[in-house]
Amino acid sequence: MAANAVYYNDSSTLSSGTWSGKNNGNIIGGGDGNSGHLNLSGTSEYSDISAVGFDGAIGTLTINESSKSTGDINLFKVGSATASELSSNTDGTLNIVGPSTGNINFLGLRIGDTSVYDRYTVRDKSVTGAVNILDGATVNIGATSQSSWDASNNVMWIGSGNAANTGILNISGEGSSLSLINKKIEESSYYDDSMVNGDAYLGYLGHAVVNVTNGGTFTAGRIVASFLRKSDIADNLAKLSTTDITVNGKNSKIVVQSLMALASNVGGRIYDIDFSDSLQGVGKATLTVEDGGEVNFEGKSYIADDGYEVATSGLFLASDQKSDATVNLNHGGTISISNSVLSSEEDGIIAGLGKYAFNLNGGTLRVNSCKYCDNQLTTSVDMNVLSVSFLEADENKSMSLKGNLIGAGGIVKNGTGAVILSGKNNYLGGTRVEAGELRSENDDAFVNNTAYIINGGMLNQNSHDLVMSSLSGAGGIANVTDASLIINQNNNSYFAGEFTGSGTIEKIGNAQLALSGDSSKFSGITTVSAGNLDSTKALGGHIIVKKDALLSATGLLGATDVLSGANLIVGSLYQGNSPKISALTIDGSIKNTGNVFIGGLDNNRQSMVGNRLIVNGDYHGGGSLYFNTVLGDDNSQTDHLSIAGDTNGNTTVYVKNVGGNGDYTQKGIELINVLGESNGNFVQGSRIVAGSYDYFLQRGNHGNGTDEKSWYLTNFKPAPIPEPKPDPEPIPDPEPVPDPKPTPEPEPGPQPRPKPTVRPEAGGYAHNIAAANSLFILRLHDRLGETYYTDVFTGEQKVTSMWMRHAAGHTQSRDSSGQLQTQANRYVMQLGGDIAQWSRDESDRWHLGLMAGYGNSHNNTRSSVTNYRADSSISGYSLGAYGTWQQDEGENTGAYVDTWALYNWFNNKVKGEDLSGESYQSKGWTASVETGYTYKLNEFTGSHGSLNSWFIQPQAQIVWMGVTADSHTESNGTPVSSYGDGNLLTRLGIRSFMKGHHKMDDNKGNEFEPFIEVNWLHNTKSFGTKMGDTKIEQAGTKNIGEIKVGVESQIKTSLNLWGNIAAQVGDQGYNDSLFMVGIKYNFK
Q1: Could you tell me which residues come within 8 angstroms of residue 488 by beta carbon, excluding any fewer than 6 positions away?
Q2: Where are the alpha helices (DSSP H) in 932-1000?
Q3: The whole model's pTM is what?
Q4: Where are the domains of the chain?
Q5: Going by C-beta distance under 8 Å and a sequence separation of 6 or more, which residues neighbour residue 173?
Q6: Is the pLDDT of residue 414 over 70?
Q7: In this structure, are strands 757-758 and 800-814 parallel, antiparallel, or unpaired?
Q8: Which fold has domain 792-1051+1061-1083?
């Protein structure tokens, strides 16, 4: 301090007037153990203050409100000491609180400083200085004119001179700033050494802390942190220097006009130490930029000896083995920098032999925009990618990162310029390109087996191979020129960008990769080896789909090979796409040895109709084609295949009906159109059905007005191709005769309309409803099965019983179209018993009983046109009651009336050949009223002494059939309903029987009653089915003739047995045969 220094060791506030340091004290808080505190506020003015907190004292100077300096302040010290022996710590604080304090100008500033010549002194007491520039206050450090500059001007020292020293600089608040200005006022190049043009020296032996927060700004020509002179280097000093620089908060900024050296060597000189010595980085220096903060390297220049400007902007880390430098570029922080002359490679960021860490932890590394920058940033520094961080190069700028990028975080490329990676990188958090170009310079630059997102710009493999764990993004380009790209997709993703180049792309992994960009310019090979590749716009080049893989596409594909076991679907399977009718164009040929699905699905996995596959080249078969069609007439909606070139090979075609009910076709429904040579053969792979009809795939013919090169669906069976006749023997030319008058050719008559082919399933449905209504129908003798008898002891007639019957039958019938033949086998078991019986006059008999049954029918129907077969069946149960009145006039003659009612329920099945099985239920009531009268025609004695009686019994019966089947929709979409319920079956017949008894059987109760019976049966309705809009019914059942023969017997008074066989014959080939046995036990 100057010899005339005056200490102010008091406390006061001056709100007006002038504080003169010469009169009141130019050191606020000076002298060992003292303290001084001065608050300048209001409109006060001040001059000649040079220090705060000096030589063991505590000092505080606060300048706020509108207090202003009356002139420049020379070198100013905050927290400083010169005395070697102090009994108290030194603590100085300068608070400058804006925004009305005006521009405060110091020629130089030292914070937490002792004389640099004090560096070898061991101090017991600390020296601490703190400068707080707050709320919009502005401070300049440096000479405002050339004439006022000397070696100590334009320089700021923080935490310097001794290990016990700490300097703190806080710049906080919007508009708050500290600027170290150049010695020349006008904007021009530096003189021969930039270090004298606004330098900040931080942590020379001591500890320096710089905090720029909440919108503050710190500007310096050069920042040198944690260093010693080369001549000072010693182990006991090298570890003492520490610096912590933090830039935090929106709009907070450090502007470096040339160089920031963190624990690094500097080639310049410190004039007030030694004009010949240079600086060497030691200790530890840390730069942290976060939460909206920025460090901006402006890239000023100096004039070299050759007269050219040379940029000196850059960041130097840990130059010596005794140094340690860390850069923390945290979330929201930005470092803007470009190249300089720091190295022979002109790198913008370099590191030396010391320990360093450049941590990308969510911040942005940006190529700077400035007057003297060369628009490039090159560095070989390794960087730790700790979280998703950003690399930004704007238009006409580039960033080249030659070091290794490692860590758990990811990289995002921003800006329209280029970022080039050439290190051996191994960051695991994925790569994202938002704009511009991200380029690989070697096979290790892009990290394999990680996720890549391209939202804009270009990911340029630049002839280097890459394996991605996934690809996604909203746009941009993946350039695969002369390279291999493998996408191992194990989670579904969506990429809206495009592929360019001529390399190879392979999609592996079981998940879906959905593409929506225009990759028509890609000329390489794309292989789908696993999972689903979904393309909705264009994918050029040559596409190969391998076994078990799936390519779904709309728009355009290049030439495509669908290998054996592979699948191509027309339409998108991406869940984000709305279901719609799709078209796919193959811009070239297609080789199909796998499966091509032209029919599409909506988001509910329901089939859609109307997709188109257009092949601009040839079609090579060997696989399968799948179509969806609304099967009806010639104008039915359908999927379609158009082939501009030739066809060859055999292709199996499968057609799924989507809601069609079947209709008559004349020309047919065009599925496949061929413009070139139609040498290929398209073969129907399975039955094609709708409504009641079978459809067939056949080549067109001129006879019905269709193109012979193309292929159609019709529901009339194609005529067989006739065998070619051998060429006839040549006939000698006849003698010439005069030409007769030409006979006009007759006009061709109208072609007969082909008859549609009826499905055999129709016969199955029809027979099921017929069986459900008739299976449990019975007659009195089917159930009663007894002869009249009189108790041999009492003469009283008794019939109280439990009965059971078994019946088996076989039916053959045709349908109303004449194409279907049905055979059916049935089995019925019924049992019942009386629950009450009585007589009103001792001659008649009344029965009331319950009965139940089980029955089934197994049927098969075969088409005489197609030879297709359908199997059908029903099985079910019945439960009901019966009531009978029988008249006996003494000679076992007279009338009877029998009634019954049953509730029936069945499970029904129909299984067509090559079709899915169908199941449905049926249920309902059946009821009957039967009557008859027994006449005794004759009685005679047999040759062996037997007494025989001959009876005749006319009968009439009416049965109401009310079993209905549920409406049903087949898996192919055909609605099915059955009809015929409500039918009234009437039967008129006559039964003739013989009753015989031999004397040897007296008192044994044995009777034997053979019979023959003929009946005429009439149905008021036919049983059938409606499939779609077409009805098919069982034929020949309106009127049926029946003959039945059998025997009824009484083995003993308590046991009856009976059996019969019957045959029925109807119209149109209807016939039925029946065998029945019954047993009844009579209780007394």
Answers
A1: 449, 467, 468, 469, 470, 508, 509
A2: none
A3: 0.80
A4: 600-714, 792-1051+1061-1083
A5: 98, 134, 135, 136, 137, 214, 215, 216
A6: yes
A7: unpaired
A8: Lipocalin (2.40.128)
